[in-house]
Structure formats: structure tokens, C-alpha cells
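Need the bound structure for nicotinamide-adenine-dinucleotide, inputs here:
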Amino acid sequence: MTEESAFDRFIRTVDSAAAIAGISDDAVLQRIKTPERIHEVSVPITRDDGKQVIFSAYRVQHSSARGPYKGGIRYHPNVNLDEVKALAAWMSIKTAVVNIPLGGGKGGITVDPKTLSKTELEALTRSYTERIWRVIGPQVDIPAPDVNTNSQMMDWIADEYGRQSRTISPAVVTGKSIAFGGSAGRDIATAQGGFEVLHAAMEATGERIKDSTVAIQGFGNAGANAALLLHAAGARVVAASDSTAAVSLPDGLPVADLVAFKSRGGSFRELDAYDRTSVEDPLFSEADILVPAALEGQITAANADRVKARWVLELANGPTTPEADAMLERRRVRVLPDILANAGGVVVSYYEWLQNLHAETWLREEVEARLAVTMRRAYERVSEFATFKRTSFRLAAYAIAIDRIAAALRSNSLEGRVALGR
Ligand code: NAD
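Answer from helper R.:
Posting the output first, comments after.
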């Protein structure tokens, strides 16, 4: 039996959610299950030693039914077309769940960025932008950061897009540095959005974040900021991992010190003062809340029984397979699904885009307050629908999203768009 791919899992989840949402229009469902455009490009750079190398890269534009394509760019050795297709599709679902007027897309370069110097990373980012600039743009497709990409790389993309298009277009990409048109609050947005969802969900069951214990897999933008927010709210982070090792401390890890250590370029395997274990270990730690914040496909049928947490806050995209999801549901583990829990990043990206288009600068408090309202509203809608249909939060969120995308496809005159090949 061949292993099911991430994109196959997306299709299976759409089918289950369509049944719940009562959508039986096959033509519309087929549109949702098929990416509108796939760009596969080769990205040449000259390395510092003068050698020429070429990397494979992608930009998948999944759905523009509800607005311009929107989604991050990932640099990772395992990036492949199937993964980028799944990530792009999840973006279309996510923007629909939080009801912002954007579609879904995603990009990636198959590269281990740790093997490149800063000059080489800049060359790679500019070369990739040069390859895709004709198919992105402020009203077309707006990239953002994802795994191993950051505000510096987004600044290079905005700059290179400007050179190529002979325009000044900060709105072509979000997640930029503040100096280059970025938004206050974008750095912590994914974690903050997740925090709002967790807070609302725990409140509804009479539980609270304060005094809870937390285990986090992945300590980058999403994971480290979640650690800071949860710690500040009185939770104890008892286990955390990066790609090199896991560290744990039942009394609570010194979160601020770990974040400072990581921001200096440190790896958990160098932390001699702690017991270091396998990077998977936080998934199975004794903790109330598990936060997967690394990569997809981490909680599977093979290990879901070992998860001890009662809450799973999915800040990573696609960390739980459908089989594992069903196993967790049977054990009444409450899974707050990625397409809701990590949508804070794209919501503040949307705010950044709006600020750039209108030449405005919003205060951090304004961004945070708007994000909190948007996330709470999305949570309430998903929670109500899940209760009404007696289904999981994931299927409820998918059902709401595909209903919104289907409505946009129908009102955009499906036949007309198909005739135009759009
Ligand atoms: P990042 O590159 O900033 O951090 C990734 C972290 O995961 C790093 O600490 C890395 O060491 C760690 N990691 C990698 N492989 C690991 C493994 N096997 N075990 C344990 N740790 C591992 O990336 P990020 O932006 O924080 O993204 C993390 C996840 O969150 C991804 O799934 C991404 O798609 C998702 N996400 C990010 C955003 C965002 O705004 N950055 C928004 C939505 C979703």
C-alpha cells in the first residue's frame, strides 16, 4: 500500500466536510479539490566559492475564488510539489474559516537553508523571486514567511519584485520587517491567534490556561512565541523541542532564556544543563496542552495513543493525520485544528497588506485587538457549528470554509470562469 500524501489527506477531509455541510455539487467540489495553477521553477545561484547550483522550487495557487492567493514560502530539504499543494489548499480553507477576502497559495524551495551563507540565501531568494514575479503581485498572489523564512527574506522579495516590475509594491509580500512596511504584531500573530482560540475553548469547558502544563514541538516563530504567551499567562512549559533535540523540566522551562538562546542561533542539542531527548518527545509528554509547531504528519496512527495531553493546539500545518485525529477524538482529546488555530498569521498578514495598500501604519494594540476579535468570531462560529452537527472542530471548520468557497465559486459564475479557463 502506498502512503497517503498530504494533498490526498486534504481531499479526503474535504469529502467528509462536504457531507456535513450538505454540499453535493460535484463540479464545485472538484474545483475546491484542484489547484488553479502550479508553477514549478528552477532557481540558479552562484555559491560563495563560485560554483553554480540549481534548486527546485514551486508556487502553487490553489484558489482565488474569495480573493488574491495568499500563503507562505518554505525553505526545507523535504519540500516537494505534493506538500506545497497541500499547504496551498489549507491556506484557501484557512482564509475562508476566518472570513478574510483572500484565497490560498503556497511556495517552497527544496533546500537546507542551514547549508547556505547569508549572501547565498539572499541570492536564492532574489533568484526565486525573479522566476515567479510575473505570477505574483499585490492583487494577484501575496507570499509570506513559513518554515525557515523570515522578515529579512520577505524584504528581499519585496525589493526584487519592485526591481523587476519597476514599481514600489510593499503589498506584494507580508511578514516584512517594520522598517520595510511590515506590520506591528505580525511576528507573534500566529501564536497570538492560537492563544485566543485556546483561551476561548478552555473557557467554554471551565478550564484555564493559568497553571496548565504545556509541551511544544518546534521552537521557531510559532512555537517560541506560543511558549512566551502561554508562560506569561501562567502556564508551565514543561517540554520543548527544535529540530536537534528536546528539553524538559517538570517545574517549567525558563522560556525567555530559551527564546533568547534560539535567537542567538543556538540549537537545543547544545543545552548541556538539561536532559536532552528525541525531538519527538514533547508529543508524548505529561502535559495538559500539546502544541505541535514544527512540521506536518507528526501525530499519526502509529503514535496517537501515546499522546497524553487533553488539548492539542495545532500551530503547525497538518501535524495530525485523519486516522490519528479519529483516535484522539475517541479518547476525547480536544484538537484545535490548524486551519483555525494557526490562522492568526494570515489574519495579521491581511492587516499588513491593507496597511500597505492604504499607506497606513496601525499601532500594535490596534492590530492585537482586531486579531482577537477576528479569532474569537471564527472560534464561535466553528464551535457552534461543531455542536450543532455533533462533529469535530476540524470538520466543522472545513465545512464552514468550503461552504464559503463554494458560495464564491457559484456567485462568480462557475460556467463563465471555467470557460475562461480561470
Ligand atoms: P520556523 O522555521 O520559525 O520554526 C520551525 C521550528 O521547528 C524550528 O524551531 C525547528 O528547529 C523546528 N523543527 C523542525 N523540524 C522539527 C522536528 N522534526 N521536531 C521538532 N522540531 C522541529 O517555522 P514557523 O514559521 O514557526 O512554522 C512552524 C509551523 O507553523 C509550520 O508548520 C508552519 O507551516 C506553521 N505556520 C507558521 C505560520 C507563521 O506565521 N510563521 C503561520 C501558520 C502556520
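Comments: The mean pLDDT is 95. The radius of gyration is 21 Å.
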